[in-house]
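#struct-help
A.M.: can someone run this one for me? Single chain, 228 residues.
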Amino acid sequence: PFHTTNMDAKDQELQLVRKQLRELLNEANHNQEIMTRHQELDLQLIGANSFRDLIEHILNTTADICDLHQITLCLLDQHDDLKTMLADLKIDSHDFPRLIFVATNTDLYHQVAPLKQAALGTYQASLHNHLFAPYEVKPRCVAIIPLIRQSKLLGCLNLGSLDVERFTTDMGTDFIERLGSIIAICLENVINSERLTLISLTDALTNVNNRRYVEMRMIEEIGRARRQ
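D.P.: on it. C-alpha cells below:
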C-alpha cells in the first residue's frame, strides 16, 4: 500500500509538471505572436512615406494589430503650421476625425503636470474627454502616451479600451512608450519631408505652384484615370 501511494504521488507530481510546461509553452507562443504583430506595426510605421499614410497606420493599423476599441492622435499645433501643411497637401481634415490638433501645451497636461511619461488608468472625463471627443461612447480605461522628440513634446497617442482591466496603473509601459518614441520619430521625419516637397513645388516669391508641381499632379491624375 505504501509503495502504491508513493507511485500515485509521483504520478500526480509528474502531471502537474507537464501542465505547468504546457502553460509556459502556451504563454511563450502567445508572447511570440504579440512580438510578431508589433514588429509588423513598427515596419509599417517606419515605411510610411507620406503624412496621410503615416496617420492611417497610426490610427487604423495600430488599432487592428493591438486590438484596441478606440484610438486618437493629438498633435500640438501652436501656430496652425500643421493645418496649413494639410491644406497645401490637399488633405481634408474631415478624412481623419480622430486626428486632433491643440494649440497649447496645457491641453497635453495630465492632471496639473506636463505629460512626460505614459499615463495609464481609468477614464476620467475631466482629464480625457477632449482626447476622446470623436467617440460618443467613452472608453473605460485609457493609455495616454506622450510623443517626445529631442525633449520636445509633439503630442500624444491616446489608446482606449472598453475592457476596464486593459490599462491599469500597475501595468508595465515599456512597449507603449517604445511605440510612442517610434511614432514621434516617424512624425518628425514625414512632416519635414512633406514640407521640403512643398517647398520644391512652390515658387518662393509668388507662392504659386511651379512646373514640377504641375508635372507631378499630371502623373497622379493619369494614374487615377487608369485605375478608374
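A.M.: thanks! Strands lie at 70-76, 99-102, 109-110, 113-114, 119-122, 141-149, 152-161.
D.P.: also worth noting: DSSP finds six helices and seven strands in the chain.
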